Amino acid sequence: MKQTHGRGKAAAIAALAAALTLTLAVGTAQAAAGGEIVGHPGPDGLIWIPEQAGSSGFVSGGLSPRLDTFITFGCAGGGTIEVAFHLNDHPDRDPAPFTVECPESDPARVTVPLGTGLQGGFGAWVTASAPSTRWGATVVQPE
Question: Is 80 exceeded by the pLDDT of residue 12?
Answer without folding.
Answer: no
